[in-house]
Write a structure and sequence with these properties.
Layout: E1 6-7, E2 13-17, E3 29-35, E4 48-53, E5 59-61, E6 64-67, H1 77-80, H2 86-104, E7 109-113, H3 119-125, E8 130-135, H4 138-146, E9 150-153, E10 166-172, H5 181-191, E11 192-203, H6 208-219, E12 238-239, H7 242-251, E13 254-260, H8 274-292, E14 298-305, H9 311-314
Parallel strand pairs: 7-8, 7-10, 8-9, 10-11
Antiparallel strand pairs: 1-2, 2-6, 3-4, 4-5, 5-12, 11-14, 13-14
Helix pairs in contact: 2-3, 6-8
Bound molecules: zinc ion.
Length: 326
């Protein structure tokens, strides 16, 4: 049964809608746990069910809670990006541009969807790329515009910049925020020239830290999930595993070039008690172990738009190891 609209503590109203898997449209799913509201240790968001699609392994919430206003606009860029290191992101932008140039032979046109403050594009611009960004939240885009980057303030669905052609599209930490990732990847595929590249990084919902986090909740007799954050920052509404991401890419006209699973930094809130301190240290150790055994926290992936001479790209596989996630 679908409940009525609900308000989260930050004042956002959420409308529930029963949707099937956002990746493969199957409706069978395994219940993972509750997330948000009274199923969050600081009471953030509203209570939702996190489920995992039985068919493709995608994580999503059911019912899906859709915001009636832009929830990101409740936060300043400093609050929202508190875990992001701007200088490091600029360096990653340079590395992504260099990698793409190695594959394509020259700098070209690069578009970033959900460019936030634009640091990745700044880095790419310094390497000679023509850069463009789409960002839904004006407060986030202001910084990018101050750096002279052309940014269209629009939702991904309405962005006119996607009607142009690009050599590279960056989807860095964005796909997990979109309720319909397939729709966006189809648009990105159309916006890429033949042989164009897409770079994606998303959290790995099947990582060792997620699996142990859920088991830890059961151990504490809490039917909670640590996957996703559908109704509170950073608003991860759709979750991928490596298998699921490959499925998404091949079904939208891409060939996966390289895919790796790096460790991400520990983003647990500052500990307030001894128990929380133990949790923080434990998670850090699990994150190291996860990346060591191939179950890291993130998925970083380069994919090539299909109907291109793929063999030319395959010779360069293995180069991705230097490139970290944003
Ligand atoms: Zn599915």
């Amino acid at each position: 049964m679908i409940s009525s609209n609900q308000a989260s503590p930050d004042g956002v109203i959420w409308r529930p809608e029963d949707r099937p898997c956002p990746v493969c449209r199957a409706s069978e799913a395994i219940w993972i746990g509750f997330r948000g509201g009274d199923a969050h240790r600081h009471g953030k968001g509203v209570r939702t069910n996190v489920v995992c699609c039985s068919s493709c392994g995608c994580f999503y919430s059911r019912p899906t809670f859709l915001p009636l206003s832009n929830p990101y606009s409740k936060y300043s860029s400093e609050e929202y990006f508190q875990w992001h290191d701007s200088q490091q992101k600029r360096i990653i932008g340079e590395e992504l541009a260099t990698f793409a140039e190695t594959l394509q032979g020259h700098p070209g046109r690069m578009l970033e969807i959900g460019c936030g403050r634009g640091e990745l594009l700044e880095g790419a611009k310094s390497k000679g790329w023509s850069v463009f960004g789409v960002e839904m939240t004006p407060e986030f885009a202001r910084k990018a515009k101050d750096e002279g980057i052309e940014v269209e303030i629009a939702s991904v669905q309405k962005a006119t910049l996607l009607e142009n052609r690009y050599d590279v599209v960056l989807l860095s930490a964005i796909l997990e925020h979109l309720y319909d990732p397939i729709e966006i990847l189809v648009k990105v595929r159309r916006a890429l020239r033949r042989g164009g590249l897409v770079f994606i990084d998303v959290p790995n919902e099947g990582s060792l830290s997620m699996r142990i986090g859920n088991a830890y909740m059961r151990l504490r007799r809490r039917p909670w999930s640590v996957n996703l954050s559908p109704t509170f920052p950073p608003y991860h509404v759709v979750g991928f595993t490596p298998r699921c991401l490959r499925h998404v890419l091949t079904s939208t006209g891409f060939k996966v070039h390289t895919l790796r699973l790096p460790r991400w930094q520990n983003n647990l809130p500052p500990f307030r008690s001894f128990a929380e301190r133990i949790e923080f240290v434990g998670l850090t150790l699990i994150q190291y172990l996860g990346s060591w055994i191939g179950m890291g926290d993130g998925i970083c992936c380069w994919a090539v738009a299909n109907d291109t001479p793929i063999a030319a790209y395959d010779t360069l596989s293995g180069m991705e190891s230097r490139h970290a996630a944003g």
